[in-house]
User: Which sequence fits this backbone?
């Protein structure tokens, strides 16, 4: 079945450690997105990519990095510079930037 | 700046209709969306409406848009326990499909 796969479902980070969240889609979508969700808040855009080898900062990019080497993959690295990384991270994709976004099931990141 | 507001909580009895409301400030939207999020899961696109439409109906779901008042609503007819979830209103702001989300409304369906 076509869809967006995020892994792992749960992730724990130690102080000073970088961690990478995986997002893979087999929908042949050009655009991909990363959001952060905190309790009681809406989603906030971290990074987005409209096409392979291109990505742009969203509203809260500090402490995060991404790459888009393949159309189907858009990994997110939470660096040690992100001081409050505990959140639910959601990846999304759309056929192009003007189409509705479809979401993966999310990764919950916690601090040890 | 852009802002999308929703009430935090709604409780209804099974079989009744639910109406979830949303107000927004950005008048340049092309699409307005409703997403559903079940516990521990991602967001599921329920429906969307073009900004030049007033209403869209899809089975039990009815979306109403009052563009003048910047008010969007989602009506769920014959609400079921499986409809219990958080519902997010969202809209795009043109260009690169930047989407602004509301804070979500938690719908509780009482059997």
Assistant:
């Amino acid at each position: 079945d076509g869809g967006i796969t995020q892994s792992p479902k749960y992730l724990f980070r130690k102080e000073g450690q970088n961690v990478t969240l995986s997002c893979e889609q087999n929908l042949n979508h050009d655009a991909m997105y990363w959001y952060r969700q905190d309790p009681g808040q809406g989603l906030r855009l971290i990074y987005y990519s409209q096409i392979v080898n291109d990505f742009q900062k969203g509203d809260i990019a500090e402490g995060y990095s991404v790459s888009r080497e393949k159309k189907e993959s858009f990994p997110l690295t939470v660096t040690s510079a992100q001081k409050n990384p505990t959140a639910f991270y959601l990846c999304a994709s759309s056929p192009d930037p003007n189409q509705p976004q479809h979401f993966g099931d999310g990764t919950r990141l916690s601090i040890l | 700046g852009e802002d999308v507001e929703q009430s935090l909580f709604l409780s209804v009895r099974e079989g009744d209709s639910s109406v979830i409301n949303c107000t927004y400030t950005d008048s340049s939207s092309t699409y307005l969306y409703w997403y559903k999020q079940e516990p521990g899961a991602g967001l599921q696109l329920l429906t969307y409406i073009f900004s030049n439409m007033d209403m869209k109906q899809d089975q039990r779901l009815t979306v109403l848009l009052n563009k003048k008042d910047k008010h969007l609503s989602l009506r769920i007819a014959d609400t079921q326990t499986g409809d219990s979830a958080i519902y997010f209103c969202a809209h795009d702001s043109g260009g690169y499909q930047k989407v602004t989300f509301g804070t979500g409304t938690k719908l509780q369906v009482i059997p």
Summary: The mean pLDDT of chain A is 93. Chain A touches chain B through 27 residues (CB under 8 Å). Residues 6 and 105 of chain A are 6 Å apart (CA to CA). The longest strand of chain A covers residues 43-51.
